[in-house]
Amino acid sequence: MAENKRKRCQNFTFDEKDKLVKLMNTFKNVILNKKTDGTTNQAKNEAWVNLCTRFNSTGTTARSKESLMRVWEKMKTDAKLYKALSKSSHNGTGGGPSCVKTDIILEQVSDLMGRACTGITDVQDSDADQITEASSLPILGDETMEILIFQNENEMLLFLPVVQ
Which residues form the Myb/SANT-like DNA-binding domain (predicted)? Predict the structure, then answer.
């Protein structure tokens, strides 16, 4: 039963995590690709093998491809949590400094992941009409009518409320 257990390795140091993030930047277009077809998976596997070879060529502790993949997944999870806590702390009431300690490695990981980590922010509904201008124009004598101009992506629309 003890034979099936995975042998525990030394914890990753700050420098090793930093080196992994820098190497991931080199292979990010392949490894972070969302496709999962056979060709893409084979390219991802080859990229992980190359990353592992480069990682082990400059370090003192040899790491397996599986351990690098495992720590990368953990760092991605931690980066998502870090960004969520940072956003929550930033949007909280009371002002003052953020209660979330800045982590350089997690910042780099979230930058690498892009929108997968930060989510979609400040997206406007593209189908919604935007009010660009409001003006009052004299219509038939002394009566005036307020004209609101709406602008859509392809055309300009006019909205005329009831005469005042």
Answer: 8-81
